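Limitations

Structures in this collection are predictions, not experimental determinations, and the ligand pose is part of the prediction. Treat each record accordingly. The example that follows, with flavin mononucleotide as the small molecule, is included so readers can see exactly what is and is not provided: the inputs are given verbatim, and the output is the predicted complex.
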Amino acid sequence: MNHRTTEGPAAESLDPLDVVIRYHQETKHHFFRYARAPGYLDWANQPDPFRRYEGSPLVPLPLLKPDDAPFSPRYEDLYRPGAIASAPVSVRTVSRFFEYSLAISAWKQAGEVRWALRTNPSSGNLHPTEGYLLIDKIPGLSPFPGLYHYTAKEHALELRAQLPKESFSLLMQGFPRNAFFVGFTSVNWRETWKYGERAFRYCQHDVGHAIGSARIAAQTLGWRMLLLDGLADDTVAALLGVDRSVDFAGAEREHPDCLAVVWPAGRAAGPATGKTISVPRSLAPDAVRALTQHIWHGKANRLSRDDPVQWEILNQVEVTSWKSSTEHGVVELNHDSPCIETLINPSAHAPSIYPGQPRAGQVIRQRRSALAFDGKTSLSVDRFFKMLARVMPRVGRDLCRRPMPWDLLPWGPAIHLALFVHRVDGLAPGLYLLARDPAKVGLLRRAMYQQFAWTSAPGCPEDLPLFLLQEGDVRQLAAEVSCHQDIAGESAFSLGMIAEFESSLRRYGPWFYRRLFWETGVIGQVLYLEAEATGVRATGIGCFFDDPVHQVMGFNDALFQSLYHFTTGGQVEDPRLTTLPPYGLDH
Ligand SMILES: Cc1cc2nc3c(=O)[nH]c(=O)nc-3n(C[C@H](O)[C@H](O)[C@H](O)COP(=O)(O)O)c2cc1C
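Predicted complex:
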């Protein structure tokens, strides 16, 4: 077996928190040295991006056209509470849910080479994230409750386990009526194959994007979604069957990430008091135990020719960021999340802010990463503010009042945006900061250069905590710190997602490291779609020089760390690429 070791004290002699922090420090890109990676791409050993469970019954999901029911709402209605009637859970709505969250959105072709793009983006298009569904009997899908694995290539569900009716009912106790669970895991090897030691970070970004795209997909159907953050990783692994060595013999393992509950919204949904609804944070241990004692179907396919290369530091961070604790209790949610529109503009009948009033499905399907920007396109300041407003959880830690999709993550916002503004009409180019939790402005200010201006951006809505730090042309700087990628400087704006790093890890534990990345992924997903709806394009940027970014801002310790970069502007198409429709459907 191929092993790569790391120098330094043995992980066993360190506090788990220090192991996670060491992983983060060791996997930084520096101007003088990139994080350790294989150094070449072993194409013959590239992992298959499509997992299958050989021998498990495959249930195809209906391939729906955009005009087929359930009909996609207008994109902007996603953010208007009550604007989208809640659809019943059926094989068609489940199909839409997966189409809008994890399905193939197009095939690309260059010469003889063809590759699939999906509704969720992925670092290097390697797609480590696998999706699962735990659901009651559904006509057209199954006459019994079951655990399924979603197969994007076929847009189908593979039955992993038929679940006893009584155990499933036990599991659902306390959850809203007609709820189901969606789970995510990562084949970390898919990213490690290319990116080596930094791969664990990319897998977490991708989980965040998948969580975000699922939350938005749920919203198109009038459904709610909440991450069950109280679950231990062992429980997630057991429920999704990825702890079953026997089914993974000779196949690459999957790392359990998370489970979320999804349910049709509305007052009839379930246990409710007044305006709120209580949703459990985890699952009853007895119910979980009963559910895992059944007959399993299928063996995971092998994805690569050779066994995965073992990077010691990756194994260490997987072990130390494993969530072993279970927290019970409930989360109080309101029935309908408030929306940004009602906060910024109280009229729900205001003219559309998006050109052509696109449908949500259209925006979701056409989402792509820009490969290059034109260095010309600018955004109006109004659009810029509205895009930023979408990533604001608004009411801090009060989950009851957070807008979609921020009603999904039960923890308080821990990520802020450091913006490199290049081309926003009506706004001076320069460095800006968006405090996603306004209560943290003082903390951020103390941690950054004292000479920064911290003036409110001119014309900025009062409830958008956006501050000008320093005026100037930051195009070259943005590209330089983003691994010299032009996309960060040729855009209208780019940004670094700044995490409340060490304090969050100390407060919650080393497992929260992964959550910080998930939050950045959800922010990225919201911005990808906003860019698309606004008529521009975006790209997530996982390659950046960590400490040089911190130096730009004045951060000189691990209190704040940049975890993910992002860029938005007018894209330049690559004429060598041909686009083909997914599943033979021409949308
Ligand atoms: C976490 C993450 C990091 C990424 N990093 C980069 C990057 O550094 N440079 C880049 O050009 N694209 C980057 N991308 C864009 C991916 O290459 C892109 O999502 C992938 O090729 C799939 O294409 P699509 O987004 O059009 O579906 C990143 C995407 C994600 C989700």
